[in-house]
Amino acid sequence: MPSGPESFVAQANYGTEITRAREVLLTHPGRWRVIYHYDGDGIASASSAVRALRRLGYGVQATPFQGVLRGHMEELLHTTPGPVWVVDTGASWLDLYAKHRHPVLVLDHHTYPESTPEGAPRLPEHVAFVNPLDWGVDGMSEMCASTLTWLFTIFLDPKNWDNAPWGISGAIADRQHVGGFRGLNALLIREAEERGLLSGGRPVALYGATVGKALAGSIDPYFRGLSSRPEAADAFVKGLGIDPDRPLGALSPEELRRLSEALDHALAEQGVRPEFRENFRAPAYRVPGLGIEADELSNLQNATGRLGIPAVGVAVALGDPYALDRARRAEEGWRSGILGGLRRLEDRGVERWRAIQWFESPEGTLAGTQAGLAMNYLLDPNRPVLVGSYEADGPMKVSGRGTPWLVGRGLDLARALREAAAEFGGEGGGHRVAAGATVPRERWHDFLSRVDALVARQLPAAEVAA
Predict the structure, then answer these.
(1) Which of 71, 111, 240, 349 is the most exposed place for a label (fewest CB within 10 A)?
(2) To 5 degrees, how large is the angle CA 82–CA 88–CA 94?
(3) What is the dihedral of CA 82, 163, 297, 189, to 10 degrees?
(4) At what angle do helices 321-348 and 294-306 cross, to 10 degrees?
(5) How far apart are CA 269 and CA 277, in angstroms?
């Protein structure tokens, strides 16, 4: 039989933080404002939070948050005449919440600069901060904001186990499924399976109307010379003795094996690291209640966020059929933008410095996704990648992406981007493997040079010089 989440973590801070957060929420009924990061993990987190608040009978307003901007958070708090629940962002600004005159609940998995041996700094009674880092749980690989929010809502009411779709889809959006789910993620997902909330999905990480279209439209994995090239994709499939116009679901086990092995070989030929190749053939999860794959739901959330309509992603979780249709249309445009950006990088390459590689993207909201997928499937695996984008006279928004392999060798992008941004009047933070920053546009190249120097200190000299 499934067990309760109370026993998932033995560390004392686990129960202490969650109990305090639950008390803050349950003793302040009324209208709450949910502030969430606009990416797939943030949208999934907000989805669980809004569903849980509505189940409690509370009023709720959900507000997306973009970038790493302290001033923006200050403004949101100033204009909110009531309690606030912040998910997947805000860990760097704990001092701001103490000034808010109403309760504040922060659920985040990112690193934060201020800490004590016991974890987070002491906060006033009306502020509750929950972060798995304080329990010895890695927020980069073992628990993201969506699984943290899902877990917290279960403590509010066991009925919220049915937030499983938004827990797992957010974790996929945050790339925590690569190499298989681990830690608290794995415990939550295993129990959700036992409860019938998740089930096994398709055998390979491709989906589309036909085999040929699925391959040509594939972004994760991105296949060099095949993705974004319909004719080349069709020819590749025909070369395996398979009709590219057949649906994926109509392929026999032998045909699926042949396709899977050929595509795995293609990834190996383009230098993709083993953990990302394994992900292509890793077991997928299906959400029976929605009738779609968990990674498809993840893509819908990513698409709505990156195309500027994150509220639609939250509305999908509330059962709005019109929102689901709109999210699917957004996903088509999002996928097209990602494919175009990756094709551009495949054709033109990136700037390569001593310890980093970088490029600029005209598709600002898609830049981070482009960087992450390019890092996994196209670029030099020995150097993290940074991408910059800007609008009009605004600052340079920066996304940095590495790999778990680089983190294992000393990479800490959160530290590097935070330190470099601070030197040039900006802000930065995130995870060791993925981080973001905002810097004055005129200091962009100075910032890059500083990050290059900081990363060179983190990584082994022999690998940096490769």
Answers:
(1) 71
(2) 60
(3) 130
(4) 80
(5) 11
Question: Is pLDDT of 463 > 70?
Answer: no
Q: Would you give the distance in Å from CA 33 to the centre of its chain?
A: 22
E strand intervals along 75-155? 84-87, 104-107, 127-130
**What is the distance, to the nearest Å, from the Cα of residue 49 to the centroid of all Cα atoms in its chain?**
17
Residue written as token pair 């929010």? 149
Cα(294)–Cα(312) distance, integer angstroms: 17
Confidence band, pLDDT 50/70/90 cuts, at residue 298: very high
Q: CA dihedral in degrees (185, 268, 281, 251; nearest 10)?
A: 160
Place of tokens 């000299």: 461
Which pLDDT score is estimated for 388? 95
Helix (H, G, I), strand (E, B) or coil at 372: helix
Residue 105 has pLDDT above 70, yes or no: yes
43-55: average pLDDT: 97
**Is the pLDDT score of 293 beyond 50?**
yes
- The pTM of this model reads 0.84
In angstroms, the Cα distances linking 312 to 63, 144, 210, 357, 450 are 12, 21, 27, 34, 39
Is the alpha carbon torsion for 220, 226, 231, 236 positive or negative?
Answer: negative
Domain ranges of the chain: 5-196, 211-310+323-330, 349-464
pLDDT at res. 1 = 31
Q: What SS3 state is found at 393?
A: coil
Q: Which CATH class is domain 349-464?
A: alpha beta
Topology of the domain comprising 5-196:
inorganic pyrophosphatase (n-terminal core) (3.90.1640)
**CB neighbour list of residue 186: distance below 8 Å, 6 or more residues apart:** 180
> Distance between CA atoms of 190 and 231, rounded to whole angstroms?
41
More confident residue, 43 or 306: 43
Taking only the tens place, the pLDDT of each residue in 442-457 is: 999 999 999 999 999 9
